[in-house]
Amino acid sequence: MNSFLSVKIPICVFLPSMDYAMDMSEIVSRLTQSIHNTSFMDNKIKFTSDSTNRSLVCIGIPYNSGWEAFVDGKKTETIPVNIAFLGIELDKGRHEVELIYKVPGMTLGRGISLVSIIILGVIFTCENYKSCSKHMIRLIQRDY
């Protein structure tokens, strides 16, 4: 189920070779043209990036090891930006970027839960079998 978030997460792009003598309208134009087609879902962020230079995309969400980044379908490394935020380095050109969040330890937790349920089921079955077999023995002994 794809439910869209009502909150927009700030995304900024750092263009390392940006000329600081440019006027503000050109800088804003470059930044707004570089990120578009943004969509936010439960555990997924998708956007398209266009850049004439190599760039660092900083997403305004806390950096966490649970985030996986895919650039043009290939897994890429996420890096912490300004100590706390999620970042991705992109080469120049047009890129389809997809960020997916997977809770760290979720697979291990599910495995432990499953094993625990199986163990409890075995214990419960054995206890019921023991009490049932004791009851049957008493009934058989009473009949004789």
CATH architecture of the largest domain: Sandwich
Estimated structural class: alpha+beta
Q: Number of helical segments?
A: 2
Total individual domains: 2
Q: Terminal Cα separation, in Å?
A: 64 Å
State which percent range the strand residues make up: 35-45%
CATH class of the largest domain: Mainly Beta
The sequence of SSEs as H and E is EHEEEEEEEEH
Average per-residue pLDDT, rounded, comes to: 76
Oligomer classification: single chain
Structure write-up:
This protein is of the alpha+beta class and 144 residues long. It has two domains: 11-101, Sandwich (Immunoglobulin-like); 106-144. 34% of the residues lie in helices and 36% in strands. The chain contains two helices and nine strands. The longest helix is centred in the last third of the chain and has 38 residues, at 106-143. The protein is rod-shaped and about 95 Å long. The termini are far apart.
Task: Pick out its properties.
144 residues, alpha+beta, 4-stranded antiparallel beta sheet, disordered N terminus, rod-shaped, Immunoglobulin-like
Describe the secondary structure blueprint for this structure.
Elements: E1 11-14, H1 24-34, E2 35-40, E3 44-51, E4 55-62, E5 67-71, E6 74-76, E7 79-81, E8 85-90, E9 93-101, H2 106-143
Antiparallel strand pairs: 1-4, 2-3, 3-9, 4-8, 5-6, 5-9, 7-8
